[in-house]
Design goal:
Blueprint: H1 3-32, E1 36-37, H2 41-60, H3 70-90, E2 100-101, H4 102-134, H5 139-145, H6 147-161, H7 165-186
Parallel strand pairs: 1-2
Helix pairs in contact: 1-2, 1-3, 2-3, 2-7, 3-4, 4-6, 6-7
Amino acid sequence: MSAFEYTSVMASIIVGLALVDILVSLNRLIRAGGSVRWHWAAPATALLVSLTIIQIWWSLYTPRDTAMTIGQFLPLLVELVILFLLAAAALPDEIPVGGIDLRIYYDRNGRYFWSLFTAALGWLIVLEGAEVVANGEGVGRLLETRLVDLAVLAVFASLIFVRRLWWHAIALCLLATGPIGWLSKSLG
């Protein structure tokens, strides 16, 4: 088994656990029936996280002929852990006896959730920046290639601080274009 195959199995397990966490939480919400007061924001963010995780997992499949070292795998592991935490935060794990209001859950959980999304993308940008610098290219090259990602990072960060639901609705629509666009191109 190559180092790529070995690490892709570990990555797939973490991604699988993240998606299972979202699905188990969704199942609990559905089964709780009338004790759940539904609100669009929590399921919409759970869908965005699911699509993002699938997109990142699929993009990891780039067979390499060179051996992967633990030093090369650890940054990927950090990203996967952040994605797992993001998935775990998307929907509530338990339904209290008195029921749950998903709007209140989203409001209370929003800063943590969007901080994790910001950290996930920020970490990828930092890793690429380190690679650009290691290759002797200037920071301008990173800005040039990652301009869209930096704009997305700014939207993620704004969601930590701006609590207006109209902004969250607009931002979710904008943010969903990334994974949905990728998925639509990948279906062919």
